[in-house]
Design goal:
This protein is of the alpha/beta class. It has 3 domains: about 230 residues, TIM Barrel (Alpha-Beta Barrel); about 80 residues, M1 Pyruvate Kinase, Domain 3 (Beta Barrel), CATH 2.40.33; about 120 residues, Pyruvate kinase, C-terminal domain (Pyruvate Kinase, Chain: A, domain 1). It is built from 17 helices and 21 strands. An 8-stranded parallel beta barrel has the order 1-2-3-12-13-14-15-16, surrounded by 6 helices. Strands 6-5-9-8-7-11 form a 6-stranded mixed beta sheet, with no helix packed on it. The protein has a 5-stranded mixed beta sheet with strand order 19-18-17-20-21, with helices on both faces. α1 runs parallel beside α12, α2 runs parallel beside α4 and α10 crosses α12. It is elongated.
Length: about 475
């Protein structure tokens, strides 16, 4: 299967979609990456889902990536008498470390890190911001607050502290166990939730040890303040608009999304936009016009991928959600104005030979009216650098490593395929043309631009551009 579109689709697997038949249907509908959400599901569920993805990959003859999404530190209140309580604006409300069962006057919270970070005047959000508290007095095991926005609060609701850096690792004990299991399964990407600082990603990279690509989920405003440093330690990034939208004012979220996409694109790091992209399709076979516009605008911004969460994991129409997202992306990329937007901003070619070669190959493809670019690569860096240039031609990436091919399934415009390393330049040209004919990318007589490195098969040796004709 060859895809005409450049932007990619990430589909979350869950109770509605993890069967082998459904995974294959999602792949055929256009899913490129499958997300395993370790906030839910048992280990055997994730193993079965990954095996279903590998079976679908064999069936459709196209590399598919698997992304393990770690839960991260979920900060929550304790339990309430009767399961819930009503609190009103203006009343006092006390939070206590390991306190008694909650009432309308207070609640337990078993996170000492929160109490360490609190100061008078800090805002505490509960249940995705539905309730707001302002800290008046606090200590190492309590916080006396005033209710700013009241309502019903119930057991185990989430807690957010906008603008506060919490003194805790983004990796909990559960995350470490889940990470070890995910790496044992052989996932291709690992996503770290609630990244606050570059040290969080450094810790993840150390634990992963090169066995998978590492992705930072940007869902804390504090991460935006150090985004460049975080991106230095990432292979990819996700605009996680759910929690980001809780801690940022609604009007700031679209601006933050554009900032993250732009900075990731300039570095050649694949960027995923996530949360509520086609949310109405959890229960409806068609999206709203606003949702279609949201997906389309993300494509116009040049994001590498868009993610479906509940739409594919637990919704009633998972295949339809993937198919409609595929249609929206394809339609936008047929817009005559879309190429102008992709060409409007390119990364600086400084920083090494590979950047210069990728930029030169993209220009050569445009000047020669080439049907596609072909990249021979060992570790995938060449494919990512070509993707960063956002060429209008598809990028056929040939690699002897199925692991490299799967990782690049997330990258904008890259069609990864497994192929043996050529022995010489003539074999390189013949192999590129054979793959192109097999996939039907180019017609007889059309030009192709080939990027490779000599000696072949050596990572980091990209040093050659060749124009050939089919």
């Amino acid at each position: 299967m060859i895809r005409a579109r450049r932007a990619r689709i990430v589909a979350t697997l869950g109770p509605a979609s993890r069967s082998p038949e459904m995974v294959k249907a999602l792949a055929e509908a256009g899913a490129d990456v499958f997300r395993l959400n370790f906030s839910h599901g048992a280990p055997e569920d994730h193993r079965a889902a990954l095996e279903a993805v590998r079976a679908a990959e064999d069936a459709i003859d196209r590399p598919l990536a698997v992304l393990a999404d770690l839960q991260g530190p979920k900060l929550r209140l304790g339990q309430f008498e009767g399961g819930k309580a009503e609190i009103e604006a203006g009343q006092p409300f006390r939070l206590e470390l390991n306190g008694a069962t909650g009432t309308s006057r207070g609640a337990p919270m078993s996170h000492p890190e929160i109490f360490q970070a609190l100061k008078p005047g800090v805002t505490i959000l509960i249940d995705d911001g539905k309730l707001r508290l302002r800290v008046e007095r606090c200590g190492p095991d309590f916080a006396d607050t005033t209710v700013i926005q009241g309502g019903t609060v119930s057991d185990r609701k989430g807690v957010n502290l906008p603008g506060v850096i919490l003194p805790l690792s983004a990796l909990t004990d559960k995350d470490r166990a889940d990470l070890a299991y995910a790496l044992e399964l052989g996932v291709d990407w690992v996503a770290l939730s609630f990244v606050q600082k570059p040290e969080d990603m450094a810790e993840l990279r150390m634990l992963v040890g090169g066995r998978a690509a590492c992705l930072a989920k940007i869902e804390k405003p504090q991460a935006l303040d150090r985004l460049d440093e975080i991106l230095d330690l990432c292979d990819g990034v996700m605009v996680a608009r759910g929690d980001l939208g809780v801690e940022l004012p609604p009007e700031d979220v679209p601006v933050a999304q554009k900032q993250i996409i732009r900075q990731a694109k300039l570095r050649g790091a694949p960027v995923i936009v996530a949360t509520q992209m086609l949310d109405s399709m959890v229960h409806s076979p068609t999206p709203t016009r606003a949702e279609a516009s949201d997906v389309a605008n993300t494509v116009y911004e040049g994001a590498d991928a868009m993610m479906l969460s509940a739409e594919s994991a637990s919704g009633e129409f998972p295949v339809e959600a993937v198919a409609i997202m595929d249609r929206i992306i394809s339609r936008v990329e047929q817009d005559p104005r879309w190429p102008q937007l992709m060409a409007a901003e390119h990364a600086d070619t400084a920083g090494g030979d590979l950047n210069a070669i990728a930029a030169a190959a993209t220009r050569a493809a445009a000047a020669s009216d080439a049907a596609c670019l072909v990249a021979f690569t060992a570790g995938g860096t060449t494919g990512r650098r070509l993707s960063r240039e956002r060429p209008l031609q598809q990028i056929l990436m040939l690699t002897p490593s199925i692991q490299t091919a799967r990782k690049l399934a997330l990258a904008w415009g890259v069609e990864p395929r497994v192929a043996a390393d050529p022995a010489n330049v003539e074999e390189m040209v013949d192999e590129a043309i054979d793959e192109i004919r097999k996939l039907g990318i180019a017609k007889a007589g059309e030009a192709i631009v080939i990027v490779a490195g000599v000696p072949f098969g050596k990572a980091g040796s990209t040093n050659m551009i060749r124009i050939a004709h089919v």
